Backbone:
């Protein structure tokens, strides 16, 4: 999450009338307390947890970068042309993406499955509310772009669907 997303989350919480909201993912922990409690003059707290492993991994492959960049442009162009024929289903909200309605239930959709308009594809949890995300198109699921139980941003691609 960047600072603009945190600021908009704080504004959303303040407008909602909630007195306290806690959001916790693998790499960030946020607690927002509003002044709506009587006599409460505590400030808003934002805690971030350091992400040491990704920084180390990014520094290691610096030597091979020129070769990868030259070879990767054709692959990227092919992938973009391939993805252009698919419809991208994006997240309508910020939250946590779940492929199952509950841990003991089967997933909503799999790659290769045919879906129709109105079929539930996933659930996104936002502020302890579970929102069903329904398909607005019919077709076949080509790719699931997000891992189960991972945070998603507004307008982040979730699924690729072949409408044919």
Residues:
């Amino acid at each position: 999450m960047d600072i603009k997303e945190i600021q908009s989350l704080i504004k959303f919480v303040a407008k909602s009338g909630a007195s306290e909201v806690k959001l916790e993912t693998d790499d960030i922990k946020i607690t927002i307390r509003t002044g709506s409690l009587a006599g409460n003059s505590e400030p808003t707290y934002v805690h971030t947890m350091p992400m040491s492993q990704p920084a180390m991994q990014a520094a290691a492959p610096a030597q091979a970068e020129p070769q990868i960049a030259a070879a990767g442009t054709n692959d990227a162009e092919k992938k973009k042309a391939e993805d252009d024929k698919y419809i991208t289903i994006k997240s309508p909200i910020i939250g946590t993406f779940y492929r199952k309605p509950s841990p003991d239930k089967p997933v909503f959709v799999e790659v290769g499955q045919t879906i129709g308009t109105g079929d539930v594809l996933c659930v996104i949890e936002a502020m302890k509310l579970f929102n069903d995300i329904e398909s607005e198109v019919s077709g076949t699921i080509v790719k699931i772009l997000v891992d189960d139980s991972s945070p998603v941003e507004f307008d982040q691609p979730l699924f690729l669907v072949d409408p044919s």
Q: What stands out?
A: Residues 3-33 form one domain. The radius of gyration is 20 Å. The first strand starts at residue 20 and ends at 24.
